[in-house]
Structure prediction request, 696 residues.
Amino acid sequence: MKTRGDKVTTKVVPAHETDAERRHEHRFQVSESVARLVMRTTANNLPLSRDDRPYQWSTTTYCDTVDWSIYRQAKTGSAMQLRIREYHRTRPREVLNPGTAWIEFKDDEEDTSLKERFGVPMDSARSFLRGEPTLPNLDHGLAERAAKLLKGGARPVVVTQYNRLAYNSLDSSLRITADHNLMYFALPWAAGDGDEDPRPLGTLLAMEPNVIVEMKWYGERPHWALDLHSYLQENTKQERPSKFIVAMRWLLGDSGPEPK
Amino acid sequence: MKAAEEAIRSDAPAVRVVVVEDDHASADVLQRRLQANGMVVSVAHDGRQGIALVEELLPDLVLLDVMLPDTDGYDVCLRIKSNGATAPIPVIFLSARGEVVDKVRGLSCGAADYITKPFQAAELLARIDAVLGQARSPRVPRLIRPVERSAGSRMVARVTIADRSLSAHVEQLLAPKFDVADGEVTPDVLILEGNAAQPADAPEDVPVVRVTAAHASQDRPELTPVDAQLPRIVDLVVRERDLEGDLEAAAEALIVLASAIASHDRPSQGHSERVAARAVDIGRALGLDESTRMTIRLGALLKDVGNAKLPASLLAKHGELTADERAMLERHPLLGEEILAGFKRLSGLLPIVRHHHERLDGTGYPDGLRSEQIPLEVRIVTVADRFEALLTDRPDRPAVAEAEAVRILQGAVARGELDAAVVAALATQIRAAGAK
Prediction:
């Protein structure tokens, strides 16, 4: 901390989390009753995630360019998502609110993904979105790729909100989550002014009627998790693309074939 | 029904409740119990009907079952809380599901309370009272329309001064020209003492006069002394606000002029009015305030006023334009800006007039602006303009249906021309209108 006149400035050291290696990621859209059974089994075998309060609201703001380059790549099964995540006890009706923001980069390929994220004050997240060098480029080089996307005009365009129940193994090799009340919102393209204010959510594009269960893992899974995976496959209503792809399809009215 | 009628007759503000409960017997028991306590109760038996009732009646409270035949109560609650008009209405869940996760989930959806069945009536009523008490706190605006006054009635001042003798003095001074408002009537002017905060329930657009018991002071020129000059000063403040209304009338005259010009072009007759109405609807769906919607409306009505400076033969031409003709036509945003630049009060509309043919990818005209450089109000008018144009027969193509027009605009979004969120707001409106 240093003083400059009567102003005090604090150097922001971002909290940093990253996957040790690429994780498998499977998503299932299941009924409420199936989700209850799945999460009961999960609760018997895994502890609740320390960082996720049960049923807290997760608000994720996704970025893309004017020509939708991230979405177009995502539809091919390989893309890097750039997003800002916020957590709240009650559902906010705005995004980019004051408080802690998690700048997340997620590199998707076929059925694996690699995620890195930085917890920073929202002001720093806004600076990052404006293309200012806010974050160190660690581990997988995702921050550098994200900076290129921002330089190419990527900006917040669409938002998801949901209640999440998350269970995590102690070594983080297995994570199972259930997302309820999943909602997709449009976000009008940012105007140059008023950049410091929270931005109101645009139109509610859609609500998921069911529960999205996700299983993420690397390495060997225990037997119960393999059984649970089979049970989920048998009871899945629909193959699920990522939330980003579903949100963008709603946003753009894109009824093309669903990517696997 | 009798209890409700009695509540209305007694002049007490009856509490209006919507009950969403699929079990008819339970709903009936609940309805009778609430009516016996002076509440006006409407019942829906599924989620869709419940949302429709809430949007129509704007009740004081919603009692919501979790398990419904068509959806679940969480979904209904989230839809109520996602709609700006119904979001402030408190929701209480009534459910047989009593696990902690159910309660946490219900409350996280925005419910004010979660009561497990079976419940005691006394507890339910106590919780309803507590929730309504909170909802009526001054910080939460109630969903009551302000009382309208007849034209020609005296001006109304609302005096909010803590010092009783000063308050009485102010009211006495104003009495020859002003009525003193109670809380129900929207005042023309608000009188406050010194730097006192504006009351939470005071309308935002009412002018404020701040007064002081002391003599006029150069140190505090913003404070008006309470003396014989006070009525004249308050009167001037109200007239200044009315003058702004007159300027809006001047803008209306310009709109008539713009419409007259447009009437030479048969296919575009009434186009500006339709664009303005559509743009205002989109602005409302995006949560823009009334003042911004007014700017959008006026901007949409006047966006083509620059055509007045173009040759009538060019505007009336059917068939393909030459490159020179096209270049001339594409000057109409600049010409419109020139016409309106002299009207200082209309400066807020100029970006709409100048930029309504810009595109997010920078391929529009006249300035080739890109994405963030184009204000949201402009993007809304652009979408409304292109949508309404598609619904009209043109010499080079027939009109298309609304759903097809939305698909065409979504194609323009995919090409990077239009704001996806604005088109999505339009698409949602068209879908909702089609479902009715």
